[in-house]
TrEMBL record:
This is Polymerase nucleotidyl transferase domain-containing protein. InterPro entries: NT_sf, Polymerase_NTP_transf_dom, Type-VII_TA_antitoxin. The keyword ATP-binding applies. SUPFAM superfamilies: Nucleotidyltransferase.
Length: 104
């Protein structure tokens, strides 16, 4: 496992440098939310939370699991992956409102 990303700038850099690989899992857009949106909330045990949008026909269990494994190795942290379609509740709307798109 890679050294832990420590802040938002490191996170965004790692993701942008690995965009081709991330897109190979069928990802069209990716958003970060939670503690990594605001650097001051990041703790040593913080995971990284993402909302994913897949290209048409690319969303699959294997792509989600394999992307999660790849990101955990890349970032040195646990990750939590949600699909945009799963965010229909009020909580989901709050997550989307507080998320930031990642450039991949």
């Amino acid at each position: 496992m890679a050294p832990k990303v420590l802040n938002k700038a490191e996170l965004l850099y790692c993701l942008s440098q690995n965009g081709k690989t991330i897109r190979s899992f069928g990802i069209e857009r990716m958003y970060v939310f939670g503690s990594f949106v605001g650097d001051s909330k990041i703790k040593t045990n913080s995971d990284v939370d993402f909302v994913l949008e897949f290209k048409a026909g690319q969303k699959s269990f294997d792509n989600i699991v394999d992307l999660g494994d790849f990101l955990e190795q890349l970032l040195g942290r646990k990750v939590e992956l949600l699909t945009r379609e799963s965010l229909k509740s009020d909580t989901g709307k709050h997550i989307l409102a507080s998320s930031e798109e990642v450039s991949i």
